[in-house]
Write a structure and sequence with these properties.
Blueprint lengths: L2 E2 L3 H8 L19 E7 L17 H15 L3 E5 L9 H10 L1 H4 L4 E4 L6 H7 L8 E2 L6 E6 L2 E5 L15 H13 L5 E4 L14 H8 L5 E6 L6 E5 L2 E5 L12 E10 L2 E11 L7 E5 L3
Helix pairs in contact: 6-7
């Protein structure tokens, strides 16, 4: 699950490299940053066939609407939480996604995670460039850690089988996470996983073990996830559980289709919905959360 890095010219603009060689990190990236703004997307379900549709939605057209909105909002980063591809993670799905993301990539890093409709074998050759030192050594999983002051993201890999519903972190990934969280500094941490966190057969099969692992670690403040095509907030033991809406389509007319603009600080986060379809009742409304101590 790489972060897509910028071309050198754009990267220098993004970092604000001064003529004398000094670096002034731009828009909240400095060590003393008080907040960082991120565009949060999930379940784009993009197919190489641009006319592909489901429930009257065309995922290609939806993403085509969302990307200009994201560009205009000028976030410091973009996260797309799994199910990038429509069904089976075909190579052409990812090639089209790469093309569509170009307007964002000109100035902004993009982090992509994998869901149950993705295929690592086809995804990785298209999105091969990862930020050095951030992809973690977990066998057969793509795990990423990156910090954007004042918060840290830990992006996990719950892909178990391509085009089957359930997900799994697995023993090795959970062991890595346990060791990492025990040794990491006390930076407010947001865990990212694609699958839903209940006990349904199609959810994250080891969600209970994930909760037992992260609950005692006070630096873990929230878990972001997708998969259900639902926009919902919940909490467990003070950890906020944030279910991101889908970009591609919803599963029922009660749910929005769109993305979330998040402003994250050391104290909490403001999450503003941008609904482009489905139920737009909550479009423009902000949910404010305070992190547990």
């Amino acid at each position: 699950m790489p972060i897509l890095t910028l071309p050198e010219s754009s990267r220098r603009r993004f970092l604000g490299v001064a003529a004398g060689g000094g670096i002034a990190l731009a828009r909240g990236f400095g060590a003393q940053a008080r907040s960082t703004r991120w565009a949060l997307l999930a379940d784009t379900h993009l197919a190489a066939d641009k006319t592909n549709q489901y429930r009257g939605f065309r995922p290609h057209d939806n993403l085509g609407r969302v990307i200009p909105e994201v560009v205009r909002s000028r976030p410091e980063g973009v996260l797309i939480d799994g199910d990038l591809a429509r069904l089976e993670g075909q190579r052409g799905d990812y090639e089209l996604l790469h093309v569509l993301l170009q307007p964002i990539l000109e100035d902004t890093p993009v982090c992509l995670s994998l869901g149950n409709h993705d295929d690592r074998r086809n995804f990785l050759p298209v999105f091969a460039r990862a930020s050095p030192g951030q992809v973690q050594p977990v066998k057969d999983k793509h795990v990423l850690v990156f910090e954007r002051p004042p918060v840290r993201f830990v992006v996990l890999d719950s892909l178990l089988y391509v085009n089957r519903v359930a997900g799994l972190l697995g023993k090795e990934q959970r062991a890595w996470l346990d060791g990492y969280l025990r040794s990491a500094s006390e930076v407010p941490t947001i865990v990212v996983v694609h699958h839903t966190l209940d006990d349904a057969d199609g959810s994250l099969l080891d969600a209970d073990r994930l909760f037992r692992l992260v609950t005692p670690v006070r630096s873990v403040k929230a878990i972001l996830y997708g998969h259900s095509h639902r926009y919902h907030f919940d909490s467990l033991e003070g950890i906020h559980l944030i279910n991101l809406p889908a970009v591609g389509y919803n599963f029922n007319d009660r749910e929005p289709v769109g993305w979330v603009d998040a402003t994250l600080s050391a104290e909490g986060g403001d999450f503003t919905l941008h609904a482009i379809g489905g139920n737009t009742e909550r479009d423009g409304k902000t949910m404010s959360l305070r992190w547990r101590a």
